[in-house]
Amino acid sequence: MATEVELGKSKKSAASNGKKNGADEKPEVEYVEHAWSFEELEGNLAIKLNVAQPGKSAGLTAADAKKRLVENGPNALTPPPVKPWYFHLLAKFLDPFMILLEIVAVLCFILFGTNQGSVDNEVNLYIAVVLVFVICLTSVLSFYQEGQSAKVMNTFKNMMSESARVRRGGQEMDVPAEDLVLGDLVVIESGKRVPADLRIIQSDSLKVENSSFTGEPEPVEMCLEKTDDEALHSKNLAFNSAMVVEGKGLGIVVRTGDNTMIGNIASLVGQTKGGKSTLEAEVIGFVHLITKFAILSAIVFYAVALIKTCGFEIGGDCDPAKSFINVFIVILIANVPEGLPATVTSCLTVCAQRLATRQVFVKRLDCVETLGSCTVVASDKTGTLTQNKMTVSHLWLDCRTRTTEYMTREGNVDKWDSFKELVTAGALCNMCKYEADPNAPAVAAAGSLDLSQATNRPSIATMNNYTLSKRPAAVAGPLGNHQMTYQGTLARRSMQQQKGEAAKSTILNPGFFDRGAAALEASTGAGAGAGADTVRGMANLPNIVRQLSSVTGQATVGRGSQATFGRNSQATFGRNSQALQGAGTLNRLSVNALGRNTFLGGLPLVEAPPRIIVGNPSDKAVFTFCNLFKDIETTREEYPQLYIIPFNSRLKYMKTIHRPPPTQADQRRVVILKGAPEIVLKSCTRYMSKGEELPIDAGFSKRFEEVYKEIAGQGERVLGFARKHLPLSDFPASVDDKYKDMEDKVPHEEFTFLGLISLIDPPKNGVPDAVLRCKNAGIRVMMITGDHPLTAEAIAKKVNIIRDYSMRDDIAQETGESPADITEDRIGAAVITCKDLEHYKEEDWNVLLDKPELVFARASPQDKLDICRHLRARDEVVAMTGDGVNDSPALKNADIGIAMGIMGTEVAKGAANVVLMDDDFCSIVNGIEEGRVLFDNLTKTIAYTLTHLVPELMAVLINICFTIPAGMSSLMILSIDLLTEVPPAISYAWEQAESNVMDRPPRNRKVDRLVRPSLLSYAYLQAGMIEAGICLFAYFMVYGSNGVTPLDLFQFGVTDDFALRDGRVLSLVEQTRIVNSAMTAFYATLILSQVVNVFVCKTRFVPMLEHGVFNNIMMNYGVMVEVGILIAIVFIPGLNDAFSAYGRQPIQFFLFFLVSGAILVGWGELRKFLIRVYPTSCFANAFAF
């Protein structure tokens, strides 16, 4: 068929030619694929399509798919142009903080060039060089940290890469979505994202959400034919990135990559820019505020210095340039924490790395801090609080409850018709199926070998490497077309004791040859005409039977249609049997003992490739249980599925329609109903009892309610099953493939109730303790589940969600009161059936949400959304978990949406902020802890960083206000701000959690901000003043030791010869030495005091020794770097001259930090002690940062 559009390509409409698409203009794309018939689809895509029954198409071969991938490229959008690394590095030099320093550096170079010959002009050069060095170091460090952060996030994204399920060569498999090619047959189902543009060829209640393309919020029910001339609105096309919200279907890939609908608007996506996170904005806002304050204060003090030294005239001794260096630049830089943005990035990156090791993936780094401040965790039950490893625990049929632990096939299937009906229903109304285990060791590829004309037995090597494709006619009929499978348990206990290894399935691949075939016929009764070479009797039975008999200790070998051998095992050899179906699995070591060389009448014994069961946990449990008693694959072949209504949270049931076996006299279609027991029972008018159908009466209904409550009260999930026959007059065979069009005619009443199957899913290890940790941390844990209220209540009590408070019924039982007489204020715990919420008013919601312990049962996704909205309206910070398609609104609405990485759908993962890679509630608690640690460490960093600003300002102010020598030189102050303080500040990113981090209530984000008055009080008025006072003390002590009194300092260092009050005259060189010694003492005392302060700030509440002083290795390295810089500046010749430092002085002048350190430690520990003892006092409010 000739088309205007090249295969898989798109073109702009004529109307759009000659004009550019605006940023908000969608490109017009011409599609024709939706108008193709199946024959045209097959021809245009060069594929083989089963036109009569498209759903049975085999798909491309692996070789064809590989070839197309090479020719057309991957199914991926062309990524937006990536800026080279040097652009990102340049951006760091253009950061506002760096620009500020760059301007200062340029001014210093200008001053150095224009003031040649002036006194101390070289200081301008020194400052300029130091600033350039610091600018380069800080920019490179920030660039490195940003790269590390991006690397962590990319690692997470790779872990979350999407896959697609395709059918190739008749086999379904998972492949990376980017490996899809034109013509691929793709399986899509509820919860998955459409991986490419697909033409739908089969739809089982398939609904796709296309709102991102069409703007229509309602999901579109897909069909096979064109419904609209415009491709965008035709219901037989599903577009790449659309979400499948219900049902299942098959689609042919018609467009990939940039040629898809989303690819044509990718330019719009590429223009989307991520904004600053809340946490980053708060930090940046604080730094900007500090910067503005620094500039304003620098201008003010510079003006004061000029007026003081120059009056209102410039000239004489007035030197504005010197005042600019000594005042403006120093005060400006001293007030700006230049290293804080890099510290914040480091904290976020390290936190994300730690979360990765704890199975938590965050899409935005600031989400961690929000998670740390959450007040409510609204959690699913299955798979999050529980192990998601369901097993069938109880059955209720024939009005009797039976445990399944000791059930055996011999004791049930052959005796109870009701049991057989229930097992058949469980096998048919089930979404699970077998698939090859993708994680199993590779097995040699099976070839195809035609042995129909073989006259000699093939070699053992040949038999072990090929699956035989044809069988001799002598036995083809009696054995049918099924592969012979043997699953027999051979003396379970004795075999396990002897061999010490669990049982394993094997396959007997049918290979029949001359005498071997005749021997099989004679020994099993598979056919007549045994052949002249057949010798009757035990001696001539197949060798495998004799070996199996010797292994098990006893054998009963019969003639005709059946032979049974081995203790506790059974195998059936029959004309119409499925060939060697036993009661369990054959021990792997027994297979090895028999060897691959063993033949059963020409049948080679080979090991089956391992398979796994794929499906949801509930279906898996029912599938596994039913398969013990009735081979599910055989049952499904006997009852082929004609139509399915998949389970969803709205209907709370699943329905399948089947054709009965051809040999069955009653050819009416069979409908199986499975779902919530109360929903299933409403559809039933009769129930099965010992093979008979009886009318449902009041006695049965009462017994049903009692049993349901009893089983659900044990924390088990209960499923109801029912069956109905459809009259052929309404559902003839001719419409088997069109049941979708007759969905409204499929009845939902007059079913026969078959029984209940209950599933037990025990709580995960660690969950009860994790819930208690949340409660200790002031976080309420709520369970929101679709289970029955009694099941939900039982599990909630097991995991400590309901523990400390009493429910209405508990109070009534303890006091003897009527439940109706118990007022709401006495009830602290409640299990709410979400259907009751429909009638709640706002005051009812407030009363309910005030209760500390809450469980919501029979909840729908809409209920989850309503609960989330009402919680957030109360200023709660809500963390909501979800895994289903319909959970996405609640996940988006919550402060933190948490999706499950294993069981979660792609829709849920896309809506969530956080993804748990192990689906474990304990990981949520770990994330909360990490969020609190992140906030703590940022707070500690700021408290530590701001502390040194007070002594620095004091060093400058004593010169400006009192005209005495400055406490530190300009370069000393710059070295502290830009060098020595940065490594210790960044090291807080690696600080461990305090022991009480999960014993505190959540912070109030509106009040307990990152930078608050109590923190500024500690930095400026407490620790800062302590350090400033001891630094001044050291400063004056140096002058005093040299005979210089405070009064002498007012003119000290101004004249060449200075006469002290005691009569001594000091030369300018001696004055300079004393001034440099005093500044060095001030400088060293400040840096070493900060060394002590960095350890004092390690904890906010816990005693320093209890937490550990030297347990942060990165902090230890940071302190070493800080002290190393101090030693270099003070003692290295040349360098100390540049910084005006003098190191050749008595050691005691370097030990004043011991005084400030002792005061800092003492005050810090006393402050923390009082805060712990009186946590709600005014003292705690004022001094706890």
Automatic annotation (TrEMBL):
One of its GO terms (cellular component) is plasma membrane. Residues 32-113 form the Cation-transporting P-type ATPase N-terminal domain. The keyword Nucleus does not apply. The chain crosses the membrane at residues 93-113, 125-144, 283-304, 953-974, 1015-1038, 1074-1096, 1117-1135, 1147-1166. It is found in: Cell membrane. It comes from the Eukaryota. It comes from Nannochloropsis gaditana. This is P-type atpase. It is a multi-pass membrane protein. Its main location: membrane. Gene3D superfamilies: Calcium-transporting ATPase, cytoplasmic domain N, Calcium-transporting ATPase, cytoplasmic transduction domain A, Calcium-transporting ATPase, transmembrane domain. The gene is ATP1. SMART domains: Cation_ATPase_N. It holds the Pfam family Cation_ATPase. GO terms for molecular function: ATP binding; ATP hydrolysis activity; P-type sodium:potassium-exchanging transporter activity. The keyword Amino-acid biosynthesis does not apply. Residues 1-26 are annotated as: Disordered. Belongs to the cation transport ATPase (P-type) (TC 3.A.3) family. SUPFAM superfamilies: Calcium ATPase, transduction domain A, Calcium ATPase, transmembrane domain M, HAD-like, Metal cation-transporting ATPase, ATP-binding domain N. GO terms for biological process: intracellular potassium ion homeostasis; intracellular sodium ion homeostasis; potassium ion import across plasma membrane; proton transmembrane transport; sodium ion export across plasma membrane. Keywords: ATP-binding, Cell membrane, Ion transport, Membrane, Nucleotide-binding, Translocase, Transmembrane, Transmembrane helix, Transport.
